[in-house]
Write a structure and sequence with these properties.
Elements (H helix, E strand, L loop, with lengths): L10 E3 L16 E5 L4 H9 L3 E2 L8 E3 L4 E4 L8 H8 L4 E4 L3 H9 L13 H12 L3 E8 L2 E11 L2 E9 L4 H15 L4 E5 L3 H4 L4 E3 L1 H11 L2
Parallel strand pairs: 1-2, 9-10
Antiparallel strand pairs: 2-4, 3-4, 5-10, 5-11, 6-7, 7-8, 8-9
Length: about 220
């Protein structure tokens, strides 16, 4: 995949802990290149509506798209068929019992139009570090003692920033996502960041909002 459109200025980061203003992002949302994946930089990024996304043979690339794809927990839509799946107790829901297994399974998922994976060993190590510090979470679907689906992301204040999900059997990731959203709603979470549009998450109630609105919600809920 090529994330480098031409003819628009681009910021290059060094070891200094900073990000350029979001309004300086390119039309596709690319804001800056470089820097590192330290806990401090990752947390600063999420607090400011920025996330990393890049191939394993590239330097870190930092994004803040406009509009932003999000889910408000109270707008979660559960289809009749998924309600039946949940009612059958086919899966067991767990949180943070197999974080590294979840992220490694996510790294194996084939993405349309993308060669290879963006979840490199560097990404796995960085988010495992965030998990150990209490910021990154895994939401998991288990079946007969086996991890069969799940997702991971970063929780700051009352906002959850979803990163990726996987499924080894039908409906497993959807079950984990629905269960996680319902759990977050009980905790008073204000918003779930889904980053960019997917029809899968749109069917569950996610929608676009402006980056300006997104940042206002972050300011109110990640302090």
């Amino acid at each position: 995949m090529n994330f480098l459109p031409s003819n628009v200025p681009l910021f290059f980061l060094d070891d200094t802990l900073w990000f350029p203003p979001l309004e300086d992002a390119r039309p596709d949302g690319l804001l800056a290149i470089g820097g590192d994946l330290s806990n401090e930089r990752l947390l600063l990024a999420y607090q400011n509506g920025i996330f990393p996304w890049y191939n394993e043979d590239e330097p870190p690339m930092w994004w803040s798209p406009d509009p932003r794809f999000v889910l408000f927990p109270e707008e979660l839509r559960v289809s009749k068929s998924m309600k039946q799946v949940i009612g059958k107790n086919e899966f067991e829901f767990r949180v943070n019992t197999a974080f590294e297994d979840v992220i490694r399974n996510c790294s194996l998922v084939k993405r349309n139009g993308i060669h290879g994976t963006w979840i490199s060993n560097e990404i796995i190590e960085a988010y495992t570090g965030l998990h150990q510090e209490g910021y990154a979470y895994s939401a998991e679907a288990w079946q007969q003692g086996r991890l069969v689906g799940g997702l991971y992301g970063v929780l700051l204040g009352k906002v959850f920033f979803g990163e990726s999900m996987f499924s080894l059997v039908s409906n497993a990731s959807k079950f984990a996502f629905i269960s996680w959203v319902e759990a977050l709603q009980q905790q008073g979470i204000a918003m779930i960041d889904c980053q960019v549009h997917t029809s899968h998450l749109e069917s569950l109630g996610a929608r676009m909002i402006s980056r300006e609105d997104f940042i206002e919600i972050l300011k109110e809920n990640t302090v």
